[in-house]
Design a protein that fits this description.
single chain, 75% helix, mainly alpha, 3-stranded antiparallel β-sheet, 9 helices, rod-shaped, coiled coil
């Protein structure tokens, strides 16, 4: 299990490094483009026919009255400035053309240093479940959810990252519970490596959060400057009636977007609850199996204890009987020895009397 956790942490490290490098390059480009306000040239364009918001229909745009281009003051550019800023240009949603110099961003290859595996570690082919199987499990789970609720297909595609995070969180919880109750001996080298990987992951998360906060600050500042610029252009182009129409349209769009967002969040919540319930059931089943094993082990230990106590009692009883038997035999032997010694004493006494009588007779005869 430690080999699985090590592989899981290393793959997470690769993904986090790749994602952070990609974010840095994108945010660097965005920051250079938005902060180069000195090199930006704004050119007037046809507002009503040349641009539209995401929520604006083409029929509504055609119904609006066309603006008189002669009445609006036009920013003319000479040929020199047009050639100078022709290297890069972007189009805003308000019909203005923003030209700027294309930033030169160097591309560096990042080499990821993997921690060395100890010699005592098993090869990764012996892992219980490779990481590809987790993606299969997630796809199977989402497929079942889509079968039951076809409307949730769009939400699953949009919110796939959040669903993956929840799924891998539950998988990790399942694996940790399985690891803690397997009872295998933990390799100290792998344990140290796991702790180091966790510490590195924490540091990376802190760095990512810091980068995100800095990016948000930069984007806020750039959005502020951008809003100030396009508001100045809107003052000359947009009239009072159009402003009223835009406010009404904006309120309608906000209500529609809120309803769509609410529905999407509800669908996402249902999908996440399905995934959570699936792995909660698996974890509960694993806990029940572990409790059954513990109960079986406790009963087996109790039975062994009872058997050993009975055997000990039987052995002590047998020893007691043998001791009593030996004691009786010794008593009998002592009594026999006493009787034999008594008989010998009597025989010796008789011989002495006999010899004494014979000696008296011989003396009388003499």
């Amino acid at each position: 299990m430690s080999a699985i956790s090590e592989e899981f942490l290393i793959t997470q490290e690769h993904e986090s490094n790749n994602s952070s490098n990609h974010e840095d390059s994108l945010t660097g480009k965005l920051g250079i483009m938005l902060h180069s306000s000195n090199d930006i040239i704004v050119e007037n364009a046809d507002f009503f026919k040349g641009s539209s918001n995401e929520n604006t229909d083409m029929d509504e745009v055609d119904e609006l009255f066309s603006s008189n281009n002669d009445s609006v003051q036009r920013l003319e550019l000479d040929e020199h400035n047009r050639i100078k800023y022709k290297s890069g240009e972007s189009y805003t949603s308000l019909g203005t053309v923003v030209r700027h110099e294309a930033p030169k961003i160097p591309h560096h290859k990042i080499k990821i240093i993997k921690p060395p595996r100890p010699q005592s570690a098993k090869p990764r082919n012996y892992s219980i479940k490779p990481l590809e199987n987790f993606n299969k499990d997630l796809s199977i789970c989402l497929h079942h959810i889509v079968k039951k609720h076809p409307d949730y297909d769009k939400v699953i595609k949009i919110e796939k990252n959040d669903l993956e995070k929840l799924f891998y969180k539950k998988v990790k919880e399942f694996k940790n519970l399985l690891e803690d109750n397997l009872g295998n001996s933990v390799n100290p080298i792998k344990e140290k490596l796991r702790i180091k990987n966790r510490q590195k992951e924490k540091k990376r998360e802190e760095i990512r959060n810091k980068i995100r906060e800095e990016e948000l600050d930069r984007i806020k500042i750039s959005n502020k400057k951008y809003k100030e610029n396009y508001r100045k252009v809107l003052k000359n182009l947009v009239e009072v009636t159009l402003k009223k129409y835009q406010t009404i349209k904006m309120i309608e769009d906000m209500t529609i977007n809120k309803e769509i967002e609410k529905k999407k969040n509800q669908q996402k919540k249902v999908v996440m609850e399905n995934i959570k319930n699936l792995y909660d059931d698996k974890i509960q089943m694993l806990k029940e199996k572990i409790n059954e094993r513990k109960m079986y082990k406790a009963l087996r230990d109790y039975e062994y204890k009872v058997i050993f106590s009975e055997a000990d009692k039987y052995r002590k009883k047998k020893q007691k009987i043998a001791h009593e038997k030996n004691k009786n035999l010794l008593k009998k032997q002592v009594e026999d020895i006493k009787l034999e010694s008594k008989a010998e004493e009597e025989s010796i006494h008789k011989r002495i009397i006999k010899l004494y009588k014979n000696s008296i007779k011989s003396m009388r005869m003499v």
